[in-house]
């Protein structure tokens, strides 16, 4: 059986940034990479104002813990960049921006090394001799009390291990012990090793693919800690975690959240409001850990994305109450909203939806040619083993 991508999506090989926005069905998508995965209240408030002034007021949270402004125009883009530059959210150029692909755990506190490591990693990736990595190559700093970011689509991890910091590559189960002092040079050396071993072909390549052809260098001997389930909305030691339907909010919501404190961006399309002890009473938030909308992930889909074969979010919304496991609805085989495997995936094709179990949006389908009515009016989804 062929994969779900019988209509191969256009693979850009790069992710949109602020300086290099991507055209979508509703205008330019401008992706902001908050430094250290954190926005101060002033930054968040200003982003909300600019999303209304220069975009269509819709703000997405991405699976790489970035903030995306939608509906920006060619005419409004320069003023938006100037505004973001004044907030220290813009890099020197598009190449530097693309390299600064770092996801940071939101559960850090002042006593751990996380923010220092994030700042030093940012610095290391901005130097002239930084490794020339592919656009989608990414780093994770998962160095709070327990590692939680194993599911992020990335390539090199610094994470908490049983006896201190570890350096790890993709989903390899063994890691290399490092210290706060050696962690960044070791991570950069591993990125150089990736390039030397032929990890990059025509400007693309990922660590997981290279590890199928090459063993890691010496020193990767320590088992990584077990994966911890992603968190749900609610309180944590660092503040309140709040979610959003499909990780999208109105600019007014971001402005209201900014009044509550600094915001940490998570790869689970949630925000952590620093030091807040009570669930905020703001419309447009998911604060209940049992909310069925937390069981569905869906990309922009039609009409917002030019590559989509169907609308995704109305279908995901109608299926959510019946689900007992996570469902990813993707407008095409690219799977932007959830690049890794999900228990259930529906991928839109020109011939209906393909149903995939325990795979990605481009995985091998169990069923093809399903209509939205097939899915909402029958039990195909929950009965397919
Ligand atoms: S996965 Fe969704 S958002 Fe990504 S290109 Fe396909 S339709 Fe567009």
Would you give an account of this structure?
- Helix content is 22%, strand content 24%.
- By secondary structure, the protein is α+β, with helices and mostly antiparallel strands.
- The chain has 3 domains: 113 residues, Sulfite Reductase Hemoprotein, domain 2; 126 residues; 92 residues, Sulfite Reductase Hemoprotein, domain 1 (2-Layer Sandwich), CATH 3.30.413.10.
- The strands form 4 sheets. The chain has a 6-stranded mixed β-sheet, with helices on one face. A 5-stranded antiparallel β-sheet has the order 1-2-5-4-14.
- The two termini are 17 Å apart.
- The N terminus is likely disordered.
- It binds iron/sulfur cluster (SF4).
- Iron/sulfur cluster (SF4) binds next to loops.
User: Ligands bound here?
Assistant: iron/sulfur cluster
Structural class, by secondary structure, is alpha+beta
Q: Count up the helices.
A: 10
What is the oligomer described by this structure? single chain
Helical content stands at 10-25%
Shape field: globular
Query: Averaged pLDDT, please?
Result: 93
Intertermini distance: 17 Å
Major sheet description: 6 strands, mixed
- Number of extended strands: 21
What is the number of domains? Answer: 3
What's the arrangement of strands in the largest beta sheet? 6-7-8-9-10-11
> How many whole angstroms does the radius of gyration measure?
20 Å
Low-confidence region ranges: 1-6
SS strand fraction: 15-25%
């Amino acid at each position: 059986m062929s994969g779900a991508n019988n209509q191969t999506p256009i693979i850009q090989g790069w992710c949109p940034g602020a300086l290099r926005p991507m055209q979508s069905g509703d205008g330019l998508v401008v992706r902001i990479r908050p430094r250290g995965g954190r926005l101060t209240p002033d930054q968040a408030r200003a982003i909300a104002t600019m999303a209304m002034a220069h975009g269509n007021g819709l703000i997405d949270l991405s699976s790489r813990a970035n903030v995306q402004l939608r509906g920006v125009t060619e005419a409004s883009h320069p003023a938006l960049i100037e505004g973001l530059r004044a907030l220290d959210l813009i890099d020197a150029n598009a190449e530097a921006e693309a390299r600064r692909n770092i996801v940071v755990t939101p559960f850090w506190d002042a006593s751990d090394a996380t923010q220092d490591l994030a700042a030093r990693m940012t610095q290391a990736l901005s130097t002239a001799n930084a490794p020339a990595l592919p656009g989608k190559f990414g780093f994770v700093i998962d160095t709070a009390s327990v590692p939680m970011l194993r599911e992020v689509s990335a390539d090199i991890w610094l994470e908490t291990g049983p006896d201190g910091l570890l350096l790890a590559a993709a989903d390899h189960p063994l890691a290399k012990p490092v210290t706060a002092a050696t962690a960044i040079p070791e991570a950069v050396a591993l990125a150089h090793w990736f390039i030397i071993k032929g990890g990059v072909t025509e400007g693309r390549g990922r660590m997981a693919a290279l590890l199928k052809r090459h063993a890691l260098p010496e020193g990767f001997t320590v088992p990584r800690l077990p994966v911890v389930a992603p968190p749900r909305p609610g309180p944590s030691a660092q503040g309140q975690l709040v979610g959003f339907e499909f990780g999208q909010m109105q600019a007014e919501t971001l402005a209201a959240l900014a009044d509550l404190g600094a915001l940490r961006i998570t790869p689970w399309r949630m925000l952590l409001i620093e030091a807040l002890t009570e669930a905020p009473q703001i419309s447009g938030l998911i604060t209940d850990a049992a909310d069925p909308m937390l069981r569905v992930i869906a990309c922009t889909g039609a009409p917002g994305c030019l590559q989509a074969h169907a609308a995704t979010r109305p279908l995901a919304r109608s299926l959510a109450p019946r689900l007992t496991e996570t469902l990813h609805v993707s407008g095409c085989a690219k799977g932007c909203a959830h690049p890794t495997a999900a228990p259930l995936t529906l991928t839109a094709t020109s011939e209906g939806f393909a149903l995939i179990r325990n795979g990605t949006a481009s995985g091998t389908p169990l069923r093809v040619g399903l209509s939205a009515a097939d899915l909402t009016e029958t039990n195909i989804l929950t009965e397919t083993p």
